[in-house]
Write a structure and sequence with these properties.
16 helices, 10-stranded mixed β-sheet, alpha/beta, globular, 353 residues, binds pentane-1,5-diamine
């Protein structure tokens, strides 16, 4: 009798511990959806500790996948990190919360000229906080690709007969990036959807496609290192992250120019934790935090105060921070409305072959 009372007391105590939040289940939780390898994970832990909350962090590898998930998901995210053209798309779908800048004490750290640029996809900077920007080029493994093959420094390396029949090239699984590269190679802007431009781009892609093994936006990060892939269309910051630890890798900003993008933080109207989401945005806008984040991701930040503190190694890295002369040959991926369909069609027909 006595023993069963003791057991009951122990069980009750255990139950109370669980109910009273021994598992932390009562903590507010922020749901974040970002590109892979695009934030310093230490910052997430720090924010959780400082704000006694949890972050549920998920990643995507393309804007298209992000959009599909956001539209179809029953689970709502609080914050998402889309590229500029997809800020407009999400906004046209009525999904975005207008940002109350009075809640962001660090907003003034943002570079005014980049905010101006962001108005091309977010008029008056009402819905998006610029997070990082970058360029798309070619990452390759010097152990497998000889110097003379990449010496031309242009997009047409993708057509080199050296790669014939060996299945060692990947391109991103992203219509704007793939067709965009072919448009730039053919002398057009990534946003040119005229028949002539798209025809030339399609023809270039048909030739490249003979050498392309797969369209995938993430797998190249491992595969270019282990030799499964020798050359990959890749984002500059991701490439620099890999090059830091692997001297066999190198990256080309193609001589014809490159696609440029600006990624942003947006809040969904359906966000459950808006106040916490504002705190997180403001945390990322802090100059010191933003500097640490850029040093991890290897992408330049639109945070001017942070950029002013960046070390020379970062600032002078031509892959991260190309010259103005090179940037003049680059095109920001703009929102194209319905004209996107003709780009999608070309990409789908290339992928089907
Ligand atoms: C980060 C990917 C860069 C985002 N891993 C391309 N918009």
């Amino acid at each position: 009798m006595k023993r069963s009372i003791i057991i009951l007391i122990v069980l009750a105590a255990l139950g109370a511990t669980l109910v009273l939040g021994g598992c932390g289940s009562k903590k507010p939780t922020l749901y974040i959806f970002n590109w892979s390898d695009y934030i310093d994970p230490d910052l997430l832990r720090e924010f959780e500790q400082e704000n006694d909350c949890r972050i549920r962090y998920s990643t995507f590898d393309s804007n298209e996948n992000m959009l599909t998930k956001v539209k179809s998901s029953t689970q709502s995210f609080d914050l998402i990190f889309p590229s500029g053209d997809h800020v407009t798309i999400l906004n046209e779908l009525g999904l975005l919360e207008e940002i109350d800048k009075s809640k962001l004490s660090n907003y003034a750290n943002l570079d005014k000229s980049l905010l101006k640029m962001a108005e091309s996809f977010d008029a008056e900077n009402r819905y998006a906080i610029p997070y990082a920007w970058g360029l798309t080029g070619l990452l390759y493994n010097k152990d497998y690709v000889p110097e003379e093959i990449v010496a031309s420094g242009g997009w047409n390396i993708l057509a080199d007969s050296f790669f014939d029949g060996i299945n060692k090239i990947t391109m991103l699984d992203d219509a704007r990036e793939v067709v965009g590269a072919a448009l730039i190679y053919s002398g057009y802007s990534v946003n040119d959807t005229s028949l002539e431009a798209l025809d030339d781009a399609h023809n270039a892609l048909k030739i490249w496609d003979r050498n392309i093994t797969q369209f995938d936006s993430d797998s190249y990060k491992n595969e270019v290192q282990d030799g499964t892939t020798w050359l990959a269309q890749a984002y500059n910051g991701d490439a620099v992250q890999l090059m830091e630890t692997n001297p066999s890798l190198d990256f080309i900003l193609p001589k014809e120019g490159a696609a440029m993008w600006m990624d942003n933080i947006v809040m969904l109207k359906s966000a459950q934790e808006k106040e916490l989401a504002y705190k997180f945005i403001d945390f990322l806008l802090d100059a010191e935090i933003s500097k640490r984040n850029s040093e991890y991701t290897m992408y330049p930040t639109p945070n001017e105060a942070a950029m002013e503190m960046m070390g020379e190694e970062f600032v002078n890295n031509e892959i991260i921070n190309p010259s103005d002369e090179y940037l003049e040959k680059c095109y920001m991926i703009d929102y194209l409305g319905d004209s996107i369909r003709s780009i999608d069609q070309i990409f789908e027909s290339i992928k089907m072959n």
